[in-house]
Design a protein that fits this description.
The protein is α/β, with parallel strands linked by helices. 25% of the residues lie in helices and 26% in strands. It has an 8-stranded parallel barrel, surrounded by 5 helices. α5 packs across α7 and α13 packs across α14. The longest helix has 20 residues.
Length: 656
């Protein structure tokens, strides 16, 4: 069954043993948009869940306790006459605090309900009595949520006047349990009257992000602490909004008042809101529609808003989308060391499945051959693997009708078996010689017109292409060239609590924060644009075997951020203007062979708007290994990471 919400349509799957449940699915990628209704009050949870399902949603956000009632703290039975007249009224200790846990099955509590703490809970109140009551109520309601196995509870919305220190203390205490229920802090996207750019009125001096960052820092960035981001009718500036892409946003709450009516009378979002929602779709964040009870407590009242979000979701482009990549989002991987380690067949297969990379190599070789007018062209493929570059060179030769002879040099004995099998069949037969050898020490019977290799890592030189190709000039004829001809690494400061938390989860050892990681970043924002770091040309006989480098870079900070480390990329020139790049600004379209590389820092740094980050990086080497060292000297100096390669290095094996 399909709801046609525009082009393309959005499919709603039916899959519930007890009734009909509509699930919003992207018509091309198959991704699901998770939607919910954020309710003020709930009379019957069963009815609310039925309403959620018929609205095309997946879950309900509701108070754990009736929002009109406070109650006496535990172990306090005496009340003064004045207390009896308080509003909201009290609940006696002998009365049920809230609805029975048996109203729903365990699976429905877990999958279908996110709880809200009572809105009157203010642990940072100036009133000592309110503060004490709030602390007890926080603890009591959190324990109830844990008892019901809810995935999370949501705090009352923070304000610019909240100190939040005591709230952070309550959160830290609750999250100290062995398997804590998640706590999500409700944060508005802006305080005050709005964006000065839009209306000329002053906004609050403190931003919601600053309050959230204070809470997050006081709670030591606990992995079970997240954000519910509440949209407003007006948005702050683009850079301030982008900060939230790097935060652990667990839900976006969209009040119905944020929508406007189009000419046909249907609710829609303005462009700035729509752009923000579209970007958050990429993070696979659930959305919840909030509003008055007349709208959100009925399926027909909520459905127009749900339909618009489904329509917007269905229009998302899916160029380059690979569902298999989803498992690697923010997942830390150790960089490959192909010089020291022999790659497995599955790894070769993964690399060979990227047609774009080898099409670029083929085009570069074709361009070279079209300009090389000789009777016979000698090509050396150094690090041939299982032969994809050899195949690309042969295809280029066919395109240009050139007579080529190829030396396929590979040290991995298991990969050589595959090469020799391919050598004995057309079109390789009589045109390819397979050599099992270390490219650094191999002595060929003749000089090469062209050397082709794919020793590039996510940071360009981190798979030791300079060291491996150090003897390339000895293999080349006088006018011979290498493909690639050069590579440049780039680096930029990044804000990403997710990446930093993932490193911390590896263990307390300092070594984890002195190790670079290959990662496909989902929850992360670059604080400033990438700058070139190290550049290597191939071949280069002027540097002998010393490939040490040093870079000092300065990055401007345009908004308040937390600095969690640095993200690296590379750009490589193959030949004649044909390049390979993983720089986001000029990423080779649809190429997926490389993710970015992440250099963490041990302790996040708070950066203020207008400051500059002075970053230093070294590429050092010894007879046995190559390693990076990095540090920050401004605005706050930190310790140099990975001194002498004590935690991480790229092994350089002796020449064989």
């Amino acid at each position: 069954r399909v709801w046609t919400c525009g082009v393309p349509s959005v499919c709603f799957s039916f899959s519930d043993s007890e009734g009909v449940q509509m699930v919003v699915v992207h018509p091309i990628s198959g991704d699901q948009l998770v939607l919910g209704l954020d309710l003020v009050t709930v009379t019957s949870l069963k009815a609310a869940l039925e309403n959620v399902e018929t609205s095309g949603c997946d879950f309900v956000v509701c108070p754990l306790v009736h929002p009109r009632y406070e109650r006496a703290p535990l172990h306090q039975d005496d009340r003064s006459p004045g207390d009896l007249a308080m509003k909201p009224p009290w609940i006696d200790r002998d009365d049920p605090l809230t609805r029975s846990g048996m109203e729903l099955r365990s699976g429905q509590w877990i999958e279908g309900v996110v709880g809200k703490l009572s809105p009157w809970i203010r642990p940072d109140s100036a009133s000592a009595r309110t503060r004490r009551l709030s602390e007890d109520a926080f603890r009591e309601e959190y324990e109830l949520a844990s008892h019901l196995s809810l995935k999370a509870v949501i705090t009352p919305r923070i304000s610019s006047s909240d100190d939040c220190v005591n709230l952070a203390n309550c959160i830290s205490s609750a999250l100290s349990l062995e398997r804590p229920t998640g706590i999500w802090v409700r944060v508005p996207i802006s305080f005050g009257t709005g964006d000065p750019e839009l209306c000329g009125e002053p906004a609050s001096e403190i931003s919601p992000w600053e309050v959230w960052n204070k809470i997050r820092t006081l709670c030591n960035s606990h992995r079970s602490l997240g954000v519910v981001l509440e949209m407003e009718s007006e948005l702050v500036g683009k850079r301030a909004t982008e900060r939230w892409y790097a935060e652990p946003v667990e839900m976006i709450s969209i009040p119905t008042s944020t929508f406007v009516k189009n000419k046909a009378g249907f609710p829609v979002l303005l462009k700035r809101h729509k752009d923000f929602v579209t970007n958050m779709f990429q993070s696979k964040v659930p959305f919840a529609v909030s509003g008055n009870a007349a709208t959100t407590n009925s399926s027909e009242g909520a459905k127009p808003y749900v339909m618009f979000l489904a329509h917007l979701f269905g229009k998302q482009p899916v160029d380059g989308h690979d569902a298999d990549d989803d498992a690697y989002l923010d997942y830390l991987q150790s960089p490959l060391q192909p010089l020291a380690d022999n790659l497995e067949g599955s790894m070769y297969e993964t690399f060979e499945s990227d047609p774009v990379k080898y099409a670029r190599y083929q085009e570069a070789v074709r361009l070279y051959l079209s300009r090389k007018i000789v009777e016979r062209v000698v090509i050396m493929v150094l690090g041939a693997g299982r032969g994809p570059l050899v195949a690309a060179c042969l295809a280029a030769a066919e395109q240009t009708q050139r007579n080529v002879y190829i030396y396929a040099v590979e040290k991995n004995a298991s990969a050589v078996i595959t090469l020799r099998n391919r050598r004995d069949r057309e079109p390789w037969k009589q045109r390819v010689k397979v050599v099992q050898a270390d490219m650094r020490s191999w002595k060929p019977p003749e000089k090469a017109d062209l050397i082709v290799s794919e020793l590039l890592g996510s940071f360009g030189d981190n798979e030791l292409s300079p060291e491996c190709l150090s003897s390339a000039h000895k293999l080349l004829a006088r006018d011979g060239i290498c493909i690639p001809q050069n590579s440049t690494s780039f680096i930029a400061p990044i804000c990403s609590q997710a990446l930093h938390s993932n490193v911390a989860a590896l263990g307390p050892s300092r070594a984890h924060f002195e190790t670079p990681y290959v990662v496909k970043i989902q929850h992360g924002v670059r604080i400033s644009g990438p700058q070139p770091c190290f550049k290597f040309a191939h071949p280069n006989d002027r540097e002998s075997h010393d490939f040490s480098r040093y870079a000092q870079l300065s990055f401007d900070v345009e908004e308040d951020y937390m600095l969690h480390g640095f993200v690296g990329y590379f750009d490589a020139m193959l030949y004649g203007g044909i390049d390979l790049s993983i720089l986001p600004e000029m990423h080779t379209p649809k190429m997926f062979s490389w993710y970015s590389i992440y250099f963490p820092i041990m302790r996040p740094l708070l950066l203020k708007k207008g400051e500059a980050v002075d970053f230093h990086m070294w590429r050092r080497s010894s007879a046995k290994k190559v390693w990076y060292e990095w540090t920050v000297t401004s605005p706050t100096p930190i310790a140099i990471h990975n001194v002498n390669g004590r935690s991480y290095g790229m092994d350089v094996l002796p020449m064989s």
